[in-house]
Write a structure and sequence with these properties.
- The complex is a heterodimer of chains A (143) and B (118).
- Chain A has one domain: Histidine kinase-like ATPase, C-terminal domain (Heat Shock Protein 90), CATH 3.30.565.10.
- Chain A contains five helices and five strands.
- Chain A starts with a strand and ends in a 5-residue tail after the last strand.
- Chain B is an alpha/beta fold and 118 residues long.
- In chain B, strands 1-5-4-3-2-6 form a six-stranded mixed beta sheet, with helices on both faces.
- Classes of the chains: A alpha+beta (143), B alpha/beta (118).
- At the A-B interface, α1, α2 and α5 of A face α2 and α3 of B.
- Magnesium ion (MG) binds next to α2 of chain A.
């Protein structure tokens, strides 16, 4: 299998289409005949990242890169950035508004979930510029 | 427990998925917090929730949830039902509240998903 990459734009506050990028990513992995366990991990990680772009960012992109050894999900946005990454990574920490909570988000579990789903998790953020998250899932024989 | 039995014991209506009623679930998980669903849910789960927006179905899609049961008589919009259909997720609705729904299903032998560190 050669290397495959796709990139999807994600709009701020677009709750109607939120989740479409992750849904497409899931379908791509299914078409490649990958194991349901790895597909699920990638889908959950991508979806949490996508929802954060919709809810907390000014918009950005979700990207998937597949090579024979790994799947990499990259979420990049154009701001506003995260002040305190350690705090944001804590289970239960959320700045989501009441309106967002009523929609079922704001548990403060998204970033910890992303970390749990990936073998390597990296987050960089610059206030005023944006946030970049990279999740790498290693592929084993049989995936 | 089969989705069909769940429908019967809860007097639930099937909003979509008459053909999927013979599917088995081993667990139920009740929550209105989507990230908790994504953190806890295993495959072979029915999701019990009072939220009826499209993100509930998206969440179920990502977590490979077998069926969604809306409690308190909630019925989602047609587009939400459509999304469940596209993803082959059965959706049902019951008049019972979340607590009562959970109690009935527990009585019939269905179990919850426990956090690893309880
Ligand atoms: N892309 C982002 N841009 C700016 N801030 C972000 C971004 N992603 C996360 N944050 C900040 O980090 C906090 C924690 O994020 P996390 O995804 O863990 O929880 P949440 O989105 O608030 O709730 P949940 O994911 O459980 O629905 C957010 O409340 C927000 O303040
Ligand atoms: Mg989040």
């Amino acid at each position: 299998m050669g290397n495959i990459s796709y990139e999807f734009p994600v709009e701020k506050d677009d709750f109607e289409r939120a989740g479409e990028a992750s849904s497409k990513i899931k379908k791509i992995l299914r078409q490649l005949g990958m194991d349901s366990g790895i597909i699920r991990r990638v889908a959950i990680g991508a979806y949490e990242a996508e929802m954060n772009l919709v809810i907390h960012s000014l918009g950005g992109t979700i990207r998937i890169d597949i090579d024979p050894k790994s799947i990499i999900i990259t979420a990049e946005d154009k701001g506003p950035g995260i002040h305190d990454i350690n705090l944001a990574m804590k289970e239960g920490y959320s700045t989501a508004t009441e309106k967002i909570r009523e929609m079922g988000f704001g548990a403060g579990m998204g970033l910890p979930n992303m970390k749990r789903c990936s073998d390597i998790f990296e987050i960089q953020s610059i206030v005023g510029k944006g946030t970049k998250i990279v999740m790498k899932m290693n592929l084993k024989d049989g995936d | 427990m089969k989705i069909r039995e769940i429908r019967d014991v809860l007097n639930a209506d099937v909003l979509w998925g008459e053909d999927l009623l013979d599917r088995e679930v081993s667990y139920a998980f009740g929550s209105d917090l989507m990230s908790d669903v994504l953190a806890f849910v295993k495959t072979g789960t029915i999701l019990l929730t009072g939220l009826v927006n499209s993100q509930v179905v998206r969440t179920a899609e990502m977590a490979d949830v077998t069926a969604i049961l809306f409690v308190r008589g909630k019925v989602p919009d047609e587009e939400v039902i459509q999304l469940a259909k596209e993803n082959s997720i059965a959706i049902l609705t019951t008049k019972y509240t979340l607590f009562t729904t959970s109690g009935i299903l527990y009585n019939y032998g269905l179990r919850g998903i426990e956090a690893d560190n309880i």
